[in-house]
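One thing: can you check what follows?
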Amino acid sequence: MNQSSKLKRIVKRKKLKIVGDNSRVILRPHIPADLPRIGNIIFRVLNLSAIEAEELLQETLLNFEDRHRDIQLQLLRHYDKIAEYVPKATIINKTQKLLIGAYLTMEYSIESAALFNPSIVPHPDQSLLPEGSLRFIMSLRATGEGHVSSIVFRSGIIDKDFLVNIDSVSEFVETPAVVHDPFYNNNLFKMKLKDLKAWNKTSVRIMSQIPAFFTYADLKLSIQEVYSNTEFPVDSWTINVINWLADSNYKVKFDDGTAMSERVIFPVSSNESKGIEDARFVKFTHENGSEKYYATYTAYNGHSILSQLIGTKDFQTFDIITLNGEGVKNKGMALFPRRVNGKFAMLSRADGENNYIMFSDNLHFWNSATLIQKPTQPWEFVQIGNCGSPIETEEGWLVLTHGVGSMRQYSIGAILLDLDDPTKVIAHLKDPLLSATEEEREGYVPNVIYSCGGMVFNNSLILPYAMSDIASRIAVVNLDDLFGKMEFS
């Protein structure tokens, strides 16, 4: 029996399949880019009689109210986005506001195209569980019309016998409220502007007028004051960079009553307008013992990519943060679950082909990268990368990898890095741990097996993985069996 066949014997695939549901829809703003068209919609609604407006609104609510929680609140939010274009002297009632909001709204089926690329972490709440069980949260990449990606969640329990139960999935999905005025750190903001080559007279003037910890409103007011000073030559490019940076670092919060499966993080800022891709969640333990969940993801605007970071303690409130530096210019960042030798550590694929590792004193800034692995086996000749954050074990840092072979076949492999010096690869699998079966190779993108992160439970690797970018499944691998198949240096 060859090594590949032996590996297949230690991988136990669960029958459970996680698939998308095209009936799960969110409400998105559908606002024309041309200002005159917005004005035309407002004019037409305001010229309806009171009876016509009320009947039209009630018909709309009748057709859509049972598909969304508190639809009226969301329609009013969309109205607020264009409220400044309503003529100043106009008296407008709630029915008219709701109706205008409805004309500026669309439903979007977040999972209609695919539900894939999962990562899994222990749930922050482990109370009231059967003995030997673990509650988990799984993040997935959901893709809908136009290939716009977002992050959705599932929760569940895995018991001592590795039986997996996914919590019931709600028929509703909701986007969070965006907090426009979180407190920004002035010094950190300056450092990011310097990294973006936008530290000049204009940015110095703007940043010097606001406090050490400032709000979004403080920043906007300072920009306005600099603009209004006719004696000061303003650099418009710098203003655009400052606005972009502020809009790209924000906070979102879901309502208290939302279930985990109802929460969807949908693109907000311009740099992620075409998708939030491949979130790699990890439970991070800080040096003081406090814990927080982080996830790197790829922001895509249709033309370029940007690496970003999500931080959360409860999966209800999320901080969205830009990552800076030459080391985060490509896809596939994966943060280690703790500092290594006093520094933050992260895997990367700096050149799009090989595996690298980076170290930093600051979670926001990443520069130089060290090469740790090149493709050596036929199943990874095209490129390699990580499949999620490293997992700490007694044997070393277990890193799940992906390799791309002939006919663009994606497989999952594994390497071990030295615990004290993770620049050293101390063991590897010669053959893939997981490749597509005949059933798994059919989908949105054929022949692709991929993961954004696993976890260890009861001395076993719990590995959620995507099947051809269409659905997801879970595999279980005993760690002793896995290490026994690895070739050590």
Observations:
- The mean pLDDT is 94.
- The CA atoms of residues 392 and 398 lie 6 Å apart.
- The chain is about 20% helix and 35% strand.
- The first strand starts at residue 11 and ends at 19.
